[in-house]
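Final report, Chapter 2: Outcomes

The project's central promise was a pipeline that accepts a single protein chain and returns its three-dimensional structure in a standardized token representation, suitable for archiving and comparison. That pipeline is now operational. To close this chapter, we reproduce one record exactly as it appears in the project archive, with the input sequence first and the structure output second.
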Amino acid sequence: MHRSSRIAACAAAIAAATPAAPASASLVIAEVLYDADGADDEREWVEAWNAGDTPVDLSAWSLGWGGTTLVSGRQALSGSVEAGARFVIGGPLGDAAMPPFSFGLAIDLEPDLQNGGVTADAVALFDRPADAVTAETLPVDVVLYGETNDTGLLDPAGAIAAVDVADAPAGASIERGLDGLWRIQSEPTPGAPPRPVPEPDSAPLAALAIATARGLRHVRRRAAGDRSVNV
């Protein structure tokens, strides 16, 4: 075998032995309902979204949540999330006010998810089993809701996490839009893509532009010695 052929063969063998990049980055938290309209027990849920192009086996994954740490509550996950699919964890009770949906993992999240407030609370996703997750374990993804991160909850890079969204009222969810930004969703969409972000009403903006232009003309006329203000 020529030397170049041996090098190529070695390179191919190394490539074959190198594990594929983990699917961690492709699985994210997409929506959370932590404060049901009424009793929270058995009616809270978390939606995970597989943004990648291969299925994700959840057998070594877990959820964590809390306000003081990300693991005040922990939940081992199971099942598989197909590429591009959304997987709802929690319940197992639904809500008649929401569109019909099914739980990928129907299980009561205990203790209940924190309800937000002045001090932010969080839900986190970990790419390791629940019994291997500690308060020092960094999440793959995390969403903080409330006002301020006074307890120093960490993001996936190990930095103090920023608060993603304000506290949602009872019956509303928090949802990650297709633009990556979190918003309060008054009509939750478990198991479905996020609702489009409404376009801003252009009428008030147009009125503001007209008023601003008229004000500028008024200032210019006064500066030029023209006392007439009829425009």
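Archive annotation: Residues 202-223 form the longest helix (22 residues).
This record, like all others produced under the grant, will remain available to the consortium after the project formally closes.
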